[in-house]
Design brief:
Layout lengths: L15 E4 L6 H5 L6 E4 L2 H17 L6 E2 L7 H14 L3 E6 L1 H14 L2 E6 L11 E5 L5 E6 L6 E5 H6 L2 H24 L11 H26 L5 H21 L3 H9 L10 H16 L3 H14 L15 H11 L15 H21 L15
Parallel strand pairs: 1-8, 2-3, 2-4, 4-5, 5-8
Antiparallel strand pairs: 6-7
Helix pairs in contact: 3-4, 6-7, 6-8, 6-10, 7-8, 9-10, 9-12, 10-11, 10-13, 12-13
């Protein structure tokens, strides 16, 4: 056992760029990082950014080499991208699109020994900034976290692209980002190790809290603006909270029960169609119940996230309190020895998770009814049209 003193550490991307029209400046920011980029984007994403990205790279004197990506970030897809990097002689890889594309790109860039860049076209997760990736099975079940020695060299996000996408993507990002402070708070209390590989820093914890505060202040007006594809100051603030503040906050502040329960939920096939942030929101609520948080705090969270458009009941994620086998499988996966649920400041057993998940249904339904909010209906994952 090591007797070395514990360290505290913060990780962050080399540069973060955000704003309307940022995609048109990708070449300018990319050129100092590498001169032979490989772009990975699915056909749908490339359909609405390909022209701008190509023009931007050409203007910067960079070749345009794009390969398609589809589905989950699996070990096999990562290996396939590594082969593409090697055969093309690329020295920087650029993931353009959502979290799965970006996670696959980070993993492949690391394995191939080149630099990597994130260009999210939605603000639906905090994956773009981090030095880790989530690998899934081809069926969409959580398989493992992969950790890298560094973060992306560049994260570039065009606010207008985010506003052009269906509002459900931004709402899912709120679900992912709200967990950041709840988990960082728990990690700080337990003095546990963060995803950055050390104890929480004041910086990581403070950024996690700032993400939470910015979201509560700006999410509802920002989501209204994005319904009309408008970028306002509230939209800019929410994009930064969902992407940068949450990304730095979760990585250097720590994960706990909410994301472990998200990973557990992937063991239930009913949830495979849901967005990451939709499942994380159920994880956050379950964590609050496990903590025995003040009732008002849980009620406020239910009302706010329901207004955002996130699921707060089992019904909305395709489960019921009677789905005993699925709930047991979720709880078992959420509490394996390697999961972040063990960063909670108390021991959490699988049966505690099952009880907390089951208690959500009546609790949330009552709170929503009292607040005049709609009855729960099954949620679906957002898709581009």
């Amino acid at each position: 056992m090591s007797t070395a003193a514990p360290i505290r550490t913060v990780m962050s991307p080399g540069r973060y760029v955000q704003g309307v029209g940022a995609i048109e400046r990708l070449g300018e920011y990319l050129a100092p990082i590498g001169d032979t980029p490989l772009l990975i984007a699915d056909d749908m994403v490339w359909g609405f950014v390909g022209e701008q990205v190509s023009a931007s790279l050409t203007a910067a004197g960079l070749p345009v080499n794009r390969e398609s990506f589809l589905g989950f970030a699996t070990a096999q897809k990562v290996n396939d991208i590594v082969e593409l990097i090697r055969s093309s002689g690329s020295n920087v890889i650029v993931g353009v699109g959502g979290g799965s594309t970006i996670d696959a790109v980070k993993s492949a860039g690391h394995l191939a020994g080149i630099r990597w860049v994130s260009v999210p076209t939605v603000a639906s997760t905090d994956a773009p900034t981090s030095a880790l990736a989530v690998i899934y099975t081809s069926e969409g079940e959580f398989e493992e976290y992969r950790f890298f020695p560094r973060n992306p060299d560049l994260v570039l996000i065009d606010s207008q692209l985010v506003a052009n996408a269906p509002v459900a993507f931004l709402a899912a990002g709120v679900g992912d980002a709200l967990a950041t402070w709840l988990e960082a708070r728990a990690t700080q209390r337990s003095n546990s190790t963060t995803m950055a590989g050390g104890l929480p820093t004041l910086t990581g914890t403070a950024l996690a809290k700032l993400s939470w505060e910015v979201i509560w202040e700006n999410a509802l007006p920002a989501l209204d603006a994005v319904r009309d594809h408008i970028v306002t100051p509230a939209v800019e603030k929410l994009i930064e909270a969902n992407t940068l503040l949450s990304g730095l906050g979760f990585e250097s502040g720590g994960l706990a029960a909410a994301h472990a329960i998200h990973n557990g939920l992937t063991a239930a096939p009913q949830t495979h169609g849901l967005a990451h942030g939709q499942k994380v929101n159920i994880g956050s609520l379950t964590q609050l119940i496990l903590e025995g948080a003040p009732t008002k705090e849980i009620e406020d969270f239910i009302v706010f996230t329901t207004k955002v458009g996130l699921p707060t009941t089992l019904t909305e994620i395709g489960l019921t309190v009677d789905d005993e086998a699925e709930l047991q499988a979720i709880a078992a996966a959420a509490t394996v020895p390697t999961e972040t649920i063990h960063n909670m400041p108390f021991a959490v057993r699988a049966e505690d998770v099952v009880a907390a998940l089951k208690s959500l249904e009546r609790f949330s339904r009552r709170v929503r009814a009292e607040a005049g909010l709609p009855e729960p209906v099954l949620h679906v994952a957002p898709t581009h049209h």
